[in-house]
Design a protein that fits this description.
The chain has about 475 residues and is an alpha/beta fold. The chain contains 13 helices and 17 strands. It folds into two domains: about 100 residues, no CATH class; about 325 residues, Alkaline Phosphatase, subunit A (3-Layer(aba) Sandwich). The chain is about 30% helix and about 15% strand. The strands form five sheets. Strands 1, 4, 5, 6, 7, 8, 11, 12 and 15 form a nine-stranded mixed beta sheet that branches. Strands 2-3 form a two-stranded antiparallel ribbon. The protein is globular.
Amino acid sequence: MRNAPISPPSIDVARRYFLKDCGYGLGKMALATLLTSGAGRIASGASSTAPLAVREPHFQPTAKRVIQLFMAGAPSQLELFDQKPLLTKLEGSPLPPSVIGDQRYAFIRSDASVLGPRFKFAKHGESGAEISEALPHLSKIVDDVCMIRSVHTDQFNHAPAQLFFNTGFGQPGRPSLGSWVLYGLGAETENLPAYVVMTNSGGLSGGAALWSSGFLPTLYTGTPFRSQGDPILNVSTPPGISQQQQQATYSLINDLNRERLGAVGDPEIATRMASFEMAARLQTSAPELMDLSSETKETLDLYGVDPAKPSFARSCLLARRMIERGVRFANVYHNGWDAHSNVEGNVRNNAKATDQASAALVLDLKQRGLLDDTLVVWGGEFGRTPMVETNPALGRSLGRDHHPQAYTVWMAGGGIRPGMSIGKTDEFGFNIVEDPIHVHDLQATMLHCLGFDHEKLTYHHAGRDFRLTDVHGHVVRKILS
């Protein structure tokens, strides 16, 4: 798709004369358009050189956009998706050494006793997918999703594993999945950031590097939205600043930035200019986006949303509203799944906070005709051990440690085959025995749905071409519709 760094917008002598010497800067042009048009479009001709201009992928896509529901902390697949009756029979006894091999863990011994699943499972839908009783809402839409029970990762700890899933690398500095998508496809909206991030309370182990543009221009970085108040800090005009003062400030800043861009050609200056222009548009578009008064009571009840309170459900509803308005990639992070102690209570509480809204998002998109070309992805950074974690010194009991060898992710829409289950683990839920799917394979498949050959979506940096999947990854064609 792209094999060289993005060049800064070209500026010839005539344009420089027009913008600089005539005193009619881009800021004035953009702001004048904002004041005379509700659409707030960039001045005519700018899109041909803008780094966020809409671009065609390698081939016909099945998805135009992505909503990623990331369960940070690693949900226990053994309590939610992967039923293992043998673990109940073996509870209190160690796993056979032949199963564990030389695997070592951070918080438990390899001979730790087995802990049986804490919830009952049942088959649902025409597909007969087995789902835990902790997920009653997902159970109702199993025929609309694809269950992938054989995901594995290279990373064992939270921060590297979260980075690995979101950027393809276990250390900070690489572009996130959303940044790659934006780099490859450009933006369909000029009134909102094309890549938006929402998080619940509590920090994420991977931090802001999870939505960073890495070595791509910072224009492709995800924009965090707050769950209450102004969605973006300082987007509102400060008290006492008139429209005339704001217009004059915008014009001066854009004149200075344009002059500097023409002199040094630094693409980060183009990023800065685009950010100021977006900020002006957000003063109108962001309040409208966050105002849920236009949503029906039926929709609010479907998600379980209280419009006055921040929640995962509210973020899911906002994600739907965002993609309706042209947002290309929406990340919704829910932190708190790290169940080193009381895995039953952890899963119960987090499932209660996320299950209804996750299922509602799929249903809502389907009802609105948006699911066919919107890819929804639900999952965390790794799984949990079949063995129990108990440590009186740390106050831990009946928990589970990190398990990178096998876990579950589900996907829906955007070219993914609905009502399908793929992958199988052994009877202990320890190792994958059928259709192993690496995180890089998931990333390659997501890019494929968006119309990209993951080996060709590259960016030249530090003397070589980089890609999201590094030198790995295969499209999982079994799950494509």
